[in-house]
Amino acid sequence: QVQLVESGGGLVQAGGSLRLSCAASGSIFSGNVMGWYRQAPGKQREAVALITSGGGTAYADSVKGRFTISRDNAKNTVYLQMNSLKPEDTADYYCNIQQQSLSYWGQGTQVTVSS
User: Tens-of-pLDDT digits for all 115 residues of the chain?
Assistant: First the structure.
């Protein structure tokens, strides 16, 4: 099985920055996609950023130019650098890994952006 543990969430003022980390452990295969998703109350969970083992990335339009996803394959860790944060970025952020047609989720970390 796979376990994901997120960290780095918290309270930040609008315009500020925050970096989320997610460490994966267990049966991690070399070929996979890791990503960050977020969910605000009353809204569907949405993909924020994805990154492949090879380093290819994809971003939601709402965060392009502000967020950067990266990973350290040796540590099976994925990061989300969030800059120029807006109140609408407030949500629970979840780490995800997709491999072998299965998805695994972390417990989530809360990000609150104040005005």
Answer: 899 999 999 999 999 999 999 999 999 988 899 999 999 999 999 999 999 999 999 999 999 999 999 999 889 999 999 999 999 999 999 999 999 999 999 999 999 999 9
Q: For residue 91, what are its two tokens?
A: 């949500």
Name 98's Cβ contacts closer than 8 Å, sequence gap at least 6: 32, 33, 34, 35
* Residue 89 and residue 83 in contact, taking contact as beta carbons nearer than 8 Å: no
Residue by residue, DSSP assigns 30-56 as: SS-EEEEEEE-TTS--EEEEEEETT--
Q: Which of 26, 11, 13 is nearest to 102 (CA)?
A: 26
* Chain mean position to CA 1: 20
Those residues with Cβ within 8 angstroms of residue 22's Cβ, 6 or more apart along the chain or in another chain: 4, 5, 6, 7, 34, 36, 77, 78, 79, 95, 106
Q: What is the CA radius of gyration of the chain?
A: 13
Q: Rounded to whole angstroms, how far apart are CA atoms 31 and 56?
A: 12
